[in-house]
Amino acid sequence: MTLNLHAVLETLGFTATFLLLPPLIVGVIRKTKARFQNRIGAPVLQPYYDLLKLLSKSETISKHTSWIFRSTAAVNLSMLIILAFLAPWTSFRPFDLASDLFLVIYLLALTRFFTVLSALDAGSAFGGFGASREVTLALLVEPSVILCLASLGSVSQSSDLAFVFSFKNMELLNQPGLWFLAGCGLFLASLVELSRMPADDPTTHLELTMVHEAMILENSAANLALVEYSHFLKILILLGISSQCLLHAVPYFWHSTELIRAGASIACILLMAVSIAVIESVAVKLRWTKLPEFIAYSVAMSIFCVFIALGKNLN
Amino acid sequence: MVLDTFEALAMLAAIFGILILGTTHLRTNLSFYSLHTTAIAAVTAWIANITHDSHLYLVAAAVFAIKAWVIPYFLNTVIKKIGIGTDSGAFIAAPLSMHLGALLLGLSYVISLQIPGLIGDPDSRIGSTAAMSILFSGVLLMLTRRAAISQIVGFLVIENGIYLFAVTQTHGMPLMVEMGLLLEVLVAVMVAGLLLFNIKKSFEHIDVSQLTELKD
Description:
heterodimer; A: 315 residues; 11 helices; 0% strand; globular; B: 216 residues; mainly alpha
């Protein structure tokens, strides 16, 4: 087998992008929020330094934990790396891997499952209620994610996300409404899934409100670095999928070259990071009982997607 | 079903109409209503663009100015003066009524397939789907909410639905009729707003479900 230099370079570029981009996104969010609060803020690259610092610290582990707590960080990170290869978070993919939409959704659910298990494993009160809140939110959000992606799949007559998002699918070419609604629905859903502002405030450690932070309270040092990094990677993948939906709504990108599309994907993800920071600066965290109202908007978007798909299939 | 600009704008108006149902926070309701009316004004302007009917541009501008700016602004000041920010409670929970509204959008597509005059023309069919779904959203708002402000918003949404139906099916009524209707809506909202002050003064709440109790 001869090694194709071009293919090797593309693969290296792709891998480097998804390995190095996630902390930058978080850095951009934090910097924008700081500017909104009239602070200079930490440099954009600060999340990289934080991760490196955590890696060199010594670890403290509760003696009540089992092997699940030890292995969760590695399991989650490896599953998210698989997802980064499978999920269509950027239009630039060096290889043709088939990725079924249910495989993508349930790999994401599996990472959540392991996070919840490790939170319960430590046996602290915080882990318990963090886990229960996370699962409640996941239960509410999941229908909207599935319906959005499934209606895209049903219009394109394929459940292969790589094909749905490949810009080669003529069924989806003139459907800006469907793409836009799916993008909005997925964006609102990913705000909740990523424990961002209306659902959870990622900057506070207040026991009454925290969701994600409560679950990772027992992790420290290298373990915490891996957990944080997998969370950043999850931000990249989920924001990437919704930004791809929005990019597909613009007819211009259907006729442009690969390079423009790849650049636009990255730019759109960073733009979404900025918009998350703006939302977090102007909006307040919702009361727990008000959250279903917020998630209902995401579900309503997905119901509209289903109607468009139905109308398309009936005609 | 390829959505072109006209259909997309009409559906956008319908979707914003449904999103009004999703929250009991009155100011958010009003800003969604404002967006919804802006979409309807855009539909009118687009029809004017297609039919080269210059008076429809005027109507679009008037709809935008009066219904998307003046009325929400007026109702916002009313809310501020009365001091009631949220609807005290809906008969159907807000998220549920939004999903009900989304289902009614599907139902109105089915209904608009049955209207005899529209079958041949897919353009006006999507227009009538959107108009009917806006009607349903307005009815849901009026039926399920307790605060009198929501009743006014529901009335305005129903009025928008009827207007959208007229403008998509007949490509616009004469200018005088449209202007008369707009003026009437404006006066109705003003009167309703003033009435709200009096209701608030004599009952100390604006809950329409309790207005049946007689009190001296």
